[in-house]
Amino acid sequence: MIILSIPICILGLMGNAMVFYFLCYKIQKTRFTVYIQNMIFADIVVLLYQYTYFMLFLKPTAVSAPVSNFLELVYMLAYNAGLYILTSLCAERCVSVFYPIWYQSHRPKRFSVIICAILWVFSALVSILEYFTCYPRFYAYLEEDSYGCYFQTIFQIIIFLIFVPIMVGSTLAIFIRMKQKMRQSPPAAIDVSITALVIFFIVFDSSVRVYNFVEYWYDTIGVPLFAVSVLCDTISTSVDPFLLFFIGYCTERACDPLEVFVERALQDERNRVEGT
Known about the structure:
The protein is an all-alpha fold and 276 residues long. It has one domain (2-271): Rhopdopsin 7-helix transmembrane proteins, CATH 1.20.1070. The chain is built from ten helices and no strands. The radius of gyration is 20 Å and the shape is globular. One of its GO terms (cellular component) is plasma membrane. Residues 15-244 form the G-protein coupled receptors family 1 profile domain. It is found in: Cell membrane. It comes from Phrynocephalus forsythii.
């Protein structure tokens, strides 16, 4: 599974790096590009960790404890932030679609930036708590640490059960409205992109998170499922830029530069503004 994951990881790093560059310097800003930009950055961090992990697995190398601890903590920070930011993107888009007048008049300036900053801080707090309560169990199942890790695992499950239903419910509402409006006009590309991102998140990323929860209580679940979860984790963080390229291409089917594909995939004329 790791051999399969390595080329996916490399392609994912290249794709995410290109999209991140386009979002920073090439694409006109909208109220939703900030969320995508932060999601892509989180994916890059996770992929860099995974690539390092794969290389160390294939060619074992001594790594100092501080470096190892830092890499693990940064991975957890980015891994958790991806879930929170995608949920926020879905929720804000849902509100903008169903309550456009209220949304236009009540949305604070720089709202996306503020929300992303808050979610990164929240992710940092959750990751630090997880690290210091559960981290020793990845080396040995230490009895004295099991109590704190138990409550931390329950806390992570609660967070998962809060964010994922919001994400799925918002996306389902967007999808139903999109299907209803298709007879009148083509759907907004941003709605198609959000739907695709959430579907792939549910299929790949959620399966990894559920495996991690189950593995805490049933550590005899076996290495094969762990290997599959590594592959799914790699796919979930690598696929987003290629989804955007594909959706942007399908919007007009023209041979344009890649940044144009990404801009099309995130386009919604009603909410197209310079500020975020």
